[in-house]
Structures are given as C-alpha cells and as structure tokens.
Amino acid sequence: MTSGTTSNATSSRPCSRCGKKRQARFFSGPRGRICTTCSKKSRSDATHRRRVGKTYGLAEGEYDQLLAAQGGVCAVCQQRRNYRLSVDHCHKSSVVRGLLCKLCNSRLLTAARDSPDVLRRAADYLESPPAVRVLGHRYASEEANKPRQYQRRGAQKAVRRKKI
C-alpha cells in the first residue's frame, strides 16, 4: 500500500442517523449509512415497543406518553434512571399503573405485596418509630451502620487466609 492512500479501517464517514463521524468498522458494510450503535438502538427500541404492546396492551407511543407524564422519573421514588423504566401493573386486575424503576418494581412493591396498607404502615413506622416512643432516642454504633455484606466478606477473607 502506498503512503498516499488510506485504508478502509482508517477512513471515516458520518452516520445518517446520529451524524457522528465514525470509522468504517462501525458500519455494516462499505455502503452502510447507519452506524452499528444506531442500528442496535433502533432494533432494541422496536423490540421494546412490540413487547410492551403485546404484554401490557400499550399502543404505539403510550409508553412514551406515560413516561413524559411522569416527568421521565419513577412514579414511586421520583428518581431519574439511565435505563428504561418497567411497566408496573396490578397482578389481580391487570391494570397498568405506571412506570417504575427496577428497585421500586421488584423490591419495594413486591415486599409490600402490592398492599397500600403495608406501605402506609411502613411510612408511619419511618415517621414515628416505636422504639423512640418506648425507649427514647438510642443511637446505633458505626459498626451497625456498615453494610452487612462487607462485614461478611471481611470475615470470609480472614477464614481463607487462615486456611492458606
């Protein structure tokens, strides 16, 4: 190869969808106009729309309409996530309730067994703990505030060191 020519590996061109100037390896072929990143995103969005429509009965654009109505955040914790929110529905009546983050959908509502009464009692518990009413203010040590998984890992590492 002469020094005046460029190889296909180093040549670049703009993606017709995102407009980014990408190397040729980011396109499906020599005549490809859409980069592989945009192509994958497009397939992922189409798959998501199809699944949401089939599973939850949401028509084209209703997921996005609901997301916009919620301000782009989880309906429970009001946090913005960098992944798609899950469509939450009642398992008894199948009514779609809203969009939730994975934590709220899989842990919070599951732990509460979708019961508003359990969640109200949990809120009451947090706002007025029974231990404070009965014993007064007591404060946990720093040891109690460490996540348990770190405590266990430290103990496991110590056991492994002794075996070696």
Describe the structure.
Helix content is 47%, strand content 9%. The protein is built from 7 helices and 4 strands. The strands form 2 sheets. The chain has a two-stranded antiparallel ribbon with strand order 1-2. The longest helix has 21 residues, at 36-56. The termini are far apart.
Mean pLDDT over the residues: 85
Helix-strand pattern: EEHHEEHHHHH
- The proportion of residues forming helix, as a percent range, comes to 40-55%
Radius of gyration: 26 Å
Contiguous uncertain segments of 5+ residues: 1-8
Structural class: mainly alpha
Q: Give the terminus-to-terminus CA distance.
A: 57 Å
Strand order of the largest sheet: 1-2
Assembly state: single chain
Count every beta strand, where a strand is a DSSP E run of 2 or more residues: 4
* Biggest sheet architecture: 2 strands, antiparallel
Instruction: Give the count of helical stretches.
Output: 7
Inertia-based shape: elongated
β-strand percent reads: 5-15%
Write out key terms for the chains shown.
164 residues; elongated; mainly alpha; 47% helix
Gist of the model:
Helices cover 47% and strands 9% of the residues.
